[in-house]
Design a protein that fits this description.
37% of the residues lie in helices and 21% in strands. The structure holds the ligand Nc1nc2c(c(=O)[nH]1)N[C@H]1C(S)=C(S)[C@@H](COP(=O)(O)O)O[C@H]1N2 and molybdenum atom (MO).
Length: 554
Amino acid sequence: MHARTGLKAVLRRIPLLIAGLLAGAIAAVVMTLAMAAGRYWLGIMPPVEAVPDRIAPMLDIGTFFSLFGEYGGYNGLKKFGITTGLRAVLGVGLVMGIIYVLIIESGWSRRSRRWLFGASTPALVFMIIAVLTVWIGLVIFLWPVLPANYRGLPYSQARIVTIAALFVWVALFALTLMLVYRAITARIARNITDTKTETDAEPAERPVSRMLPRRAFVAGVGGAALTYPIYRLLQTMYNDATFFYDGSVYSGEDIEPIAPTDRFYTVTKNVVDPDVNQDLWRLEIGGHVDNGFSLSFDDFQQFEQVDQETTLMCISNRIGAGLFSNANWRGIRLRDVLESAGIKEGAYEVVLTGADAYRDTFPIDKALEETTLLVYEINGEPLPRVHGYPVRALVPGMYGEKNVKWITRIDVATEDVQGFYEQQGWGPNFMPYTRSDIFRPRTVLRGGTFSFRQEVASGTPVDLRGRAFAGDRGIRAVEVSTDDGASWEPAEIYYPGTDLTWSLWRYPWTPEEPGEYIVTSRAVDGNGEPQTTEVRGIVPQGASGYHKVTLTVI
Ligand SMILES: Nc1nc2c(c(=O)[nH]1)N[C@H]1C(S)=C(S)[C@@H](COP(=O)(O)O)O[C@H]1N2
Ligand SMILES: [Mo]
């Protein structure tokens, strides 16, 4: 008899645990929806994006790349990060649901007073402590990325807004859990505790397990109804995404001196890039300066306007690859902006931050060079979103990563601060090695070696073309070899560009005999330094070595 009532008591609790799980899951879904809405409409960075962004710079390059391999590139890794985050939110929801049941259904709790949403004193205290712990924990852990705001809210406001949003999201989770749990269990609880109540229309002995479904059904339908908008929002965010580490390259045999804007290569750490509202946006200048201030987009017109052609190249651009483009930019000098703030004695470097909380740094001397700009136009058009609308840094002579997009803040620092990728171990030198490569005729990369896509009949003229680049040192000359470096002939530079750009070269050549020819090129930079033969991979300071392409002549 005793054993049977004991078993019954346990069985009676099972619906409560299910109710707890359901409440936790629904609360997680509601919170996720609120995060997605906050992200989408207000540009607030949710933890599912903030946590991976906080962790990524802490990985060393080796781990970073092995994760690329495991998850299908940077793109795959970003998606994995987000998916894991969403799963973790659901997991935490379920665990919190169970803990909540165990607390609220304990004997101690049942004897206590009821407060908000039917929560007992211990249940409410637990929830308050849980909310504060999670919130404060997130604020501390995510501190460096909290100034992110994808709508371009000014840096100093963005951090406060993110902190407030984190509280709202976590508190919303707790309230939803409490509310949903109560809604589901009101009847069960009554049934368990007041089995003798005459006012209850339901027969007292009716099994609890048969009463749960109606409430659970309503809650379940409610939860399911929410999954669709969430799914749609996440899908929109995904489709919106501009990422693709090696996807958006400028390559092909039709490379032009100035890349068409929509073909200019792109690299971003983001799953979804900032979509900055220009009216909201401000550029703040601070740190080790006499008078910090902030500039609106219109304020840019008060400075001298500069037009400058400059080539950008990612540190991850392998020899012969296309994370590499040249364009005409318009903007103002960083120097002019810094000088109106007044740089104090002891300035060491500048720290640039974007609306995505991406950060990079370069020496104060580089910041004061007259070619280091804050640009707002590319090829005569406003910067497109993917290239940093409304304003990005343009730092000739240094790898792409220093050219911070969607820039919202510049700090003058007195000591070394490390940027997003530098923290992983890239650098410490961020000046590209002199390089040259061949883009015409069309080349293909197979098993680590390049060859021309099409064979050529002997006696047919070949219009060999390529690029040469030396950061901000310019290109003085290019030579071509068609016998794997045994002999060299000068190439014609048909587009010299400037010291800050690539040069394009051509070498008309007619192979007379059938066979395999290894074609390669070498450049001399503007200082007279020849391109190095030393083969380096992109880690840790960018690639070097000759681009060798095999031509089959039949
Ligand atoms: N805010 C921000 N700026 C950024 C990045 C980023 O992820 N966020 N990526 C950097 C890297 S690694 C490169 S190579 C260049 C690419 O600029 P582009 O996409 O306009 O070609 O932007 C740099 N600036
Ligand atoms: Mo890059």
